Amino acid sequence: MKSMIVAATLAVCLCLSAAAPLTEENANIAPAAEENYRLITDIEPINYNVSLKPYLLDSDPSEKRFTFDGEAYITIKPKVTTSTLVLHSKNLKYSLREFYAKSKPDVKTTLPAVEPNNVTDIVTYTLTSALVANQEYVLHFVYTGTMDDDMHGFYRSSYTDSKNNTKWLGSTQFQTNHARRAFPSFDEPRFKATFDITLTSHKSMKTYSNTRIVNSTTNGDYVTDRYATTPKMSTYILAFIVSEFNERFNGDFGVIARPEFYKQTEYAFDVGQEILKDLGDYFDIPYYSMGNDKMHMAAIPDFSAGAMENWGLLTYRERALLYDEGSTTLSAQQYIAAVVAHEQAHMWFGDLVTCQWWSYTWLNEGFARYFQYFGTHNVETHYQMDQQFVVDQIQAVMNMDSTVNTNPMSDENTNTPADLSRMFNSISYNKGGTFIRMVKYVMGEENFKNSLREYLKTHQYTNTVPSDLFTVWKKYIPAQFQSYADGLFKSFTEQVGYPVITFNLTTPTTLVISQKRFLLKEGDGADGNLLYTVPITYTTNVENNFNLTTPKLFVTPNDTSVEQTLPQAVSWIVGNVQETGYYRVNYDVKSWHGIHHALLTNNWGGIHELNRAQVVDDLFNLARASVIDYDLALDILAYLKTETNYLPWTAAFNGYNYLVIRLGLETKNFAVYIRDMTSKAYDFLGFEDKPTDTTLDIYNRAKILSWACKFGKKECITKAQEYFKNLDNKPVPVNIRSAVYCTAMREGTEADFNKLYNKYLTETVATEVTLILNSLGCVKDSKLVSKFFHIIVSDSVRRQDKSAALSSLYSENNENVEPVFDLVAENLDALANSMGGYSSVASVISNIASRFTTAQQENKLKNFNTQNRGKFGGSASTLDSAEKTVKENLDWAEKKLGTFKSHLEKYTTGGSASLSGFTALSMVLFAVLARFLC
């Protein structure tokens, strides 16, 4: 026994090493705008009265098909006397432009026929007589516009009904700057006004807008619906739909969709009402009290965003709203509830109170993302979304925010359409929500809730900047933290990045805490000297309290280090309890081993599942960034062989995914390693749902099966193939379909592919359609790779779904990376036409290139860029960034991948990295005794 303990001691004390996570999101920082994209603020709109008549049917005049007639009366009030009138207009053709003083409606002045600037969309009218300050005027326009198929402005969409007829509809997507394509407007969020909308459509169709219909009149085959005046709001949240949809409606709340999808609207209808009420209670402002007394949620066949927060008429992709009990996975059902919560949270954060400009998009999106998780959790607790937030949001954004390709949450350099698009990235959403959650834990839940109530009531129907929020927040920050408030707010919203906090136990009772900005890449141009004001939490083996999330202290930029004296000697310490702060944690080597010992004891030493996920994520990334050795990280990560829970495994798979990509075609040894590492979780979870499963067990099963099957576990593959073989007679259990379908495609024949593809063509459940489409991309046979690529390029796949389908084709199997790149190069023009432009293709090329692993592939990219860059216009910079990424990845692999390969080699040949049964037993025995030996 003594020799076993000695052996175990040696095994535990080896400083072995680790790996790293997700590929970074590309966020190309655009240069400052040369043009002025912003309107002057001398004039404010008061009310828009807009009438529209779309032409969508075969029976409409051919020359008018897919156009609309428009008329707009815009009431304005100059704040100063001025002869200059500026507003936005895009792709509108005018037959009448005039204005008059509201007090003299019969005295009309014709506006000159000025065209908008073709870059900024700004129309500048120089008037012969000045508009007088504080007097109201009415602008009158008659015009026509086009209903394009690009999913912006007032656009057209279509679907095929159960009788195989093509049905057309009109819908809107105005965020960020597309209302100007439906009516002339002051198309910026700060210009709030009320709206009176009138829609005329064929009698076979129904119309919907933000508010209720107040009256309808019929004229021949056409019906005109006039809508109630909206609350005071921004142009981008105006919406209207003209369609043959049906609705599930109780008089106040409704869900609208294709008639044949009526049954699939029930879940969203039920959960939507619950979430809307719960949010109203939380904010102490009931939704129906805010000036709009109805709510519709609409499922749109073609929709560029996931969903959109139009006040009173939320619009969604079909898969984000429609649920079928027999075909929708639990994770897809959760996604529906979460997206509903996100969009409904916008009724308060975005619609009632709106960011002044897109520089502060996080004031809208950060709160919507926060309540997407915590609002859903209050109603659908069983999803455990409060726990999922950490791996989905915090850990997902950290990679992007640790490179030069990031931007501050509050970014003053936001002008061009490209800038606006950039602000709708994971910094505004994930980091915004993470920052808000961090402040909540500093403030306490009750103070946090009351602060939001005051902020919303103080600024309702207006626009805000971050300082408006911070002023309210400071009133609710506990007294002992007041002096840190400004530093906390500014360092995480005005600066980029986040720190790694090092916890150094210099003695068993002395803790020294220090910070440094965490950077993932060496020498990429990012500023490594930034420092932050950081709330610090930690617990130890003595205290072992992972529920105490109130900060114990703050570290500030003025502190070189902070020393804490612990009341008792400790054998381990874990910082950032439940990952409540936005920072990584590093330890001295002995402390890392102390955590390792604890993880190998019963119940993982009592270390919270969120903190186990944090340890895993931090190890992968600290090693990837050379903050610690890979040997040390991989040694501690060996504990995963005992792990059966979702959150740590999600963090692990994100980390392994990066390394698998870097391995390219050399995954044989990794396959042996990952099959062994996941074996306990695989046996624990099994293949089918159990009555005792939690939601996270169900999700973990899907992940474990996916990785086990992908990397050659024979039992997994055989069972998946058996399920797929019987597909026509017995549906695959819904929550393992992704693993079964993907495995069947990876291991299958063309007949198997055709079987699943035919199911895709006939499937009527949107969530299942999406799952099948992405599973088809798991094919590995070169003939099937080409076949699916050309299906994606064809009209068989909607434009909104093409990018995800393509991604599955090159991300599910490393072998496909170069063949898919070749297919893109060979079919460049057709793909650009299919996806709506070369900018979309540039993103595809960048994403594929991020998976290149050889110099030959690098040269292939360079040759492609040289030959084709002229076609890409402004998106050529994305191609240049792709070359830079490939070089960085090849350099990284040359310096660091060898350690991981060596570890895998030893593992598969039974060397020191392999965790034999004897060694595993020894380590567990040692861990039990660790606190007595250390």
UniProtKB/TrEMBL annotation:
Its cofactor is Zn(2+). The record marks Y429 as: Transition state stabilizer. Residues 267-475 form the Peptidase M1 membrane alanine aminopeptidase domain. Belongs to the peptidase M1 family. One of its GO terms (molecular function) is metalloaminopeptidase activity. InterPro entries: Aminopeptidase_N-like_N, Aminopeptidase_N-like_N_sf, ERAP1-like_C_dom, M1_APN-typ, Peptidase_M1, Peptidase_M1_aminopeptidases, Peptidase_M1_dom, Peptidase_M4/M1_CTD_sf. One of its GO terms (cellular component) is cytoplasm. The chain crosses the membrane at residues 913-933. It comes from Musca domestica. It is an enzyme of class 3 (hydrolase). This is Aminopeptidase.
